[in-house]
Design goal:
Largest sheet: 5 strands, parallel
Strand content: 15-25%
Number of strands: 5
Structural class: alpha/beta
CATH class of the domain at 3-34 and 76-144: Alpha Beta
CATH topology of the domain at 3-34 and 76-144: Rossmann fold
Shape: globular
Distance between the termini: 22 Å
CATH architecture of the domain at 3-34 and 76-144: 3-Layer(aba) Sandwich
Strand order of the largest sheet: 2-1-3-4-5
Order of helices and strands: EHEHHEHEHEH
Number of helices: 6
C-alpha cells in the first residue's frame, strides 16, 4: 500500500522535514502548499499583475495558491494539519474543514496548549498528535501494522 500525504499548516518550523525524514523508509509520497512565505504571499501579483489595494493583492495570491491546495487535498489519502505556536493558522483550519468535507483521514498536529481552541478540528480528525514523530509512527502503523519501539 502506498499513502499520499498532504502536509498542511504552519511554515515557520521544520515539522515537515521531520516527518519526511522519519518516513523515508515507508511507502509514502508527500505534498504540501508552497512553504516560501514571500512566494505564497506574492504569487498572484507576480503572475497576474500588481494590485494597489492589499485586499486584492492577497485575494489574487489566495486564489492562485488554492489551485495547488485543492489538488493536494483532493489527491491525498491522509491530510496532516499542523497548528504551530507562533501564528494563528486560519488557512490550516480551512484546509482541515475542506479535507473533512472530502472525507479524508485527518491527523492534527499541535502543541497541548491549543487543545481547547482546536476542539472542533480535533473532533473531525482520526488522530491528534503533539510531535512529528507521532505522525511518522501513525503512518508506519497504518502501512505495516508495526507498533513503535
Amino acid at each position: 500500500m502506498t499513502l499520499k500525504v498532504y502536509l498542511s499548516g504552519e511554515i515557520h518550523s521544520d515539522w515537515r522535514e521531520q516527518i519526511v525524514e522519519g518516513a523515508k523508509e515507508l511507502d509514502v509520497s508527500f505534498n504540501s502548499p508552497v512553504t516560501d512565505h514571500d512566494a505564497s504571499d506574492d504569487c498572484g501579483v507576480n503572475i497576474l499583475g500588481q494590485e494597489p489595494n492589499k485586499y486584492w493583492h492577497d485575494h489574487k495570491g489566495a486564489m492562485v495558491n488554492a489551485i495547488r491546495t485543492r489538488k493536494g487535498l483532493t489527491d491525498a489519502d491522509v491530510v496532516v494539519v499542523r497548528f504551530g505556536e507562533k501564528y494563528k493558522q486560519w488557512n490550516a483550519a480551512f484546509d482541515a474543514g475542506y479535507a473533512a468535507a472530502l472525507g479524508k483521514s485527518i491527523i492534527v498536529l499541535n502543541p497541548p496548549e491549543h487543545q481547547h481552541a482546536l476542539k472542533e478540528v480535533h473532533a473531525a480528525a482520526l488522530a491528534v498528535a503533539e510531535e512529528p514523530r507521532q505522525v511518522v509512527e501513525i503512518l508506519r502503523y497504518v502501512l505495516t501494522g508495526a507498533l513503535p519501539g
